[in-house]
Amino acid sequence: MKERDLSHDDSQSDSYFWSDHQADDELTRLRLIEQFNDPSTLRQLDAIGVADGWRCLEVGAGAGSVVRWLSQRVGPAGNVVAADIDLRFLGDISARNVEVRRCDITQDAIEPSSYDLVHARNVLMHLRDPVAVLRRLIAALKPGGWLMVEDVDNGTVEAADPAHPCAAAFDRCAQARIAFLLASGVMDLRFARTLPVHIEQLGLIDVGNEGVAQVGPGRSPMSQLMIHSFRPMDDAMVANGVIAQSDASNAQRALKDPSFFYRGGLIVAVWGRKPG
Prior knowledge:
By secondary structure, the chain is an alpha/beta fold. It has a single domain, classed as Rossmann fold. 36% of the residues lie in helices and 22% in strands. It is built from 7 helices and 10 strands. The strands form 2 sheets. Strands 3-2-1-4-5-10-7 form a 7-stranded mixed β-sheet, sandwiched between helices. A 3-stranded antiparallel β-sheet has the order 6-9-8. The radius of gyration is 19 Å and the shape is elongated. The model is unreliable at 1-13 (pLDDT under 50). One of its GO terms (molecular function) is transferase activity. Keywords: Transferase.
C-alpha cells in the first residue's frame, strides 16, 4: 500500500481509504466482507421481496457478490446497475442483465425515479456528506421503490475478556481509530449509529432497521477482515504518535490469537420505501 498522510484534514474530498491497496490485497478484503456480511444482506433483500423484472442499483458494488445475487433474482426481464469508483473486481460479470458502471455517487448523474431497489453497503461512512448522498439515492427510486443501506458502527468493538493480556491494547486501538480517522477526515467509523435517524427524517415509509454484532475469536474470518482493514490505519496512528507501536502490535496479535474473544462492529441495516 502506498504511504498516505493522515495527519491533516482531508474532509474536502470523498476519497476511499483502501483505493491504494494492491489488487490482490483489496480483493481479499472485499471477499472477506462478502463472507462476513452477505448472509444478513441477502436475508434482508429477500425479505424486501426483490422480484423478477425489478431494476436495481447496487452502489459500491465491490467484488460483486450482491450484484450476482440480484442478477439471478430479477431474471432476464430485470436489470442491475453495478456502480463503483473502482471496477477492478467486476470485470468477470457476464450476465446480460448487469451493467457495470463507473460512478462517483457524490456527483455523477443517476437516473431519477428509475429503480425498484437501491442498495449500498459500507459506502456512506467514507463520504463527506452522507445525508446528501442518501437524498440522491432516494431520488433514484421509483415511487414505491425500496432503499436499503448498510454500514458498520465500530463503537461496539471491544475485548470480551478484559483480563486477556492483549485486551487493554486492543481496546485502546479500537477507540483511537475512531477518533483519529474522524479528525483526519478519512471516514466516520461510527456513522452507522445515525442511519435509523436519517431514514426516519427523509420521508420514507415502511421503514425498519436491524443491528447485528458478533462475538468471535482471533484467527476467525471476522478477525481476518479486521486485520486487512485496520492494519494500515494502525500503522498510520503509530507514525503520527497517536498510539504506541507496542499497542498496535498487541492489537494485531490479538486478532491472530484464538484464545482472544472480542465483539466486532455493529452491522446496521436500514430500509424504507419511497411513497407513491
